[in-house]
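ASSEMBLY PREDICTION REQUEST
Request ID: AP-0331
Submitted by: J.K., bench scientist
Number of chains: two
Total residues: 390
Priority: normal
Notes: Please return the full assembly, not individual chains.
Input sequences:
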Amino acid sequence: MSAMERLVQEFSRLPGVGPKTAVRMVFHLLKRPPEEALRLARALEDLTRKIHPCRECGNFTEDELCSVCGDPSRDRGLLCVVEEAFDVGAIERAGRYRGVYHVLGGRLSPLDGIGPEQLGVERLLARVVGGGIREVILATNASVEGEATAVFLEGLLRPLGPRVTRLARGIPVGSDLEYVDGSTIAEALEGRREM
Amino acid sequence: MSAMERLVQEFSRLPGVGPKTAVRMVFHLLKRPPEEALRLARALEDLTRKIHPCRECGNFTEDELCSVCGDPSRDRGLLCVVEEAFDVGAIERAGRYRGVYHVLGGRLSPLDGIGPEQLGVERLLARVVGGGIREVILATNASVEGEATAVFLEGLLRPLGPRVTRLARGIPVGSDLEYVDGSTIAEALEGRREM
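STATUS: Completed
Returned structure:
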């Protein structure tokens, strides 16, 4: 396989990149000064060398603790459980949450062989048993698997004492009812609040 | 800047990759074994080291001559002039062309400072003056700049003797007239052929 074909193949493994896009990327790099491809290569090597999971929560970091766990002003009594490290970014960008996180690294998915052990559920339970956590917010995705994961975790967490909550379901801000699916509307009705 | 931010920035330079896609790519790689990112890094380095323009036509190759110029069965009397190396691939995939190529590496674009010197037009003329070329097919893009480039080249090439042609304009195969723009229909009428 030629160097071009090999790079096309490697680019194609990235999410959202089909073979045609991969070819465009390769030709783009061939038109640019070689430093550009080398800078990308260098950044990839750095990623594998420097980034690892936060010792505390599993979020990605270059240090021992991630920026959230390393921030003394965060409320350690409030623990938000998410599926993936990028979910931490999504919640942080919303700018409302002042607690800490726990990254599962996936969701229960028996068909893919992902059970409680693969998700390191024991590590989560150990954190809660460790004490001081008033509330666990289960912020797994609103998908079938995310929901199943939340229900499973709730069964384990509730007996340990903390309040166990999940994110509200409802109409996304800014959307027209006309385009919202029926199950979301049903959830929004169910969860309706006094004005 | 952290290793993650730097890689997001480098990915964002690729065509068709916005900041959000770049973030997804980085998180994808962080979930995979590090070998995957390193294989991509290696492929990028290989690209810059091994790939260079074909001595004859300017197409990209790992050898001295590209696969077309190195093929003794190709008709050296027929020269197809394209803007970019990836246009060679597009024509080759069509499977009908048996001549050789000349890659300009761009199109005339005075606003971007791309004139005849930047395109190496002299190298093209030298090939034609060198003799043995019966026909030059100007296969620049059907854009305003591609068209201007073809007209400019035709003016230089015709006095040298070879037949100078360009790709037919017309209705793309498989498309409904309803969705074809007016100038294409006008060109198709202009170029209509006996059945």
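REVIEWER COMMENTS: Strands of chain A lie at 52-53, 60-61, 75-82, 99-103, 135-138, 163-166.
SIGN-OFF: pending second reviewer
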